[in-house]
Design goal:
It contains 8 helices and 7 strands; from the N terminus they run βαβαβαβαβαβαααβ. It is of the alpha/beta class. Strands 3-2-1-4-5-6-7 form a 7-stranded parallel beta sheet, with helices on both faces. α1 runs parallel beside α2, α3 packs parallel to α4 and α4 runs parallel beside α5. The protein is globular and about 45 Å long.
Length: about 250
């Protein structure tokens, strides 16, 4: 299938490793003009170089701190000056600290808001005007299965990622007639350092696998094809959705 996005300018944040990196490379294979952003510029540059080998027309790497609004603003200006208008946005960030509600302090809530919700909203605010002007755009926000089944041990993620989904749903309604789609991925258990933070011992890791109907933890590359499709021209009628990629773990009906 031709995804019809060759030469489109695509921004993927949190792209230095894990799911973000996998999504960036999947888009590169479709011939996009790729921009990858994250804190770790050395690892990020390696992803950009790899993206060129995968088929990206161009690939640029820019450092950004998603907890810092000024850093996000600088990223937007740099992309505009050096690359042009972002037409595809894959918003991805690291998860906020785990913990039960009673364990959290006000600074934890502030950090969770800035890194998980505010950063996505600021990235979208930068990209949306050009998408509306061109009557074409794709926004995919990577969230978590906690938006479908909140976890007592992931209070911040459950709270702020659910807010992301609510914001994306309302935005999708507003811009649907303008050729812009907005969707979310509810990420399940995937082999990343973040998951190791949550399941530190071998026993906990094995238990985490047994709880998944598919019987295993996913690899980042298993998320990328659906994300790339949602960014494509043929996905023009898919919007306002939150799709779980979780090996059957989530038991909710919707």
């Amino acid at each position: 299938m031709d995804f019809g996005i060759r030469n489109k300018i695509a921004l993927v944040t949190g792209a230095s490793s894990g799911i973000g990196r996998a999504c960036a490379l999947a888009l590169a294979a479709e011939g996009v003009n790729l921009v990858v952003a994250a804190r770790r510029i050395n690892e990020l540059q390696a992803v950009a170089d790899e993206a060129k080998a995968h088929g990206a027309v161009q690939a640029n790497a820019f450092a950004v701190d998603l907890e810092d609004p000024e850093s996000i603003a600088r990223l937007g200006h740099t992309i505009q000056e050096r690359c042009g208008d972002v037409e595809i946005l894959v918003a991805n960030s690291g998860g906020p600290r785990p913990g039960r509600y009673s364990e959290l302090k006000p600074p934890d809530w502030d950090h969770g808001y800035r890194s998980t919700l505010q950063s996505f909203l600021l990235l979208i605010d930068q990209a949306l005007p050009a998408m509306r002007r061109k009557n074409w755009g794709r926004i995919v926000a990577l969230t978590s299965t906690t938006v479908k089944e909140p976890s007592p041990m992931l209070t911040l993620s459950s709270t702020f990622r659910a807010a992301v989904v609510a914001a994306m749903k309302t935005l999708s309604i507003e811009v649907a007639a303008e050729g812009i789609t907005v969707n979310c991925i509810a990420t399940g258990r995937v082999a990343t350092p973040r998951l190791r933070e949550l399941y530190q011992s071998d026993e906990e890791w094995e238990r985490a696998q047994r709880e998944i109907p598919a019987g295993r933890i996913a690899q980042p590359e298993e998320y990328a094809p659906l994300v790339a499709f949602l960014c494509s021209a043929p996905a023009s009628y898919v919007t306002g959705q939150t799709i779980a990629i979780d090996g059957g773990l989530t038991s909710s009906l919707l």
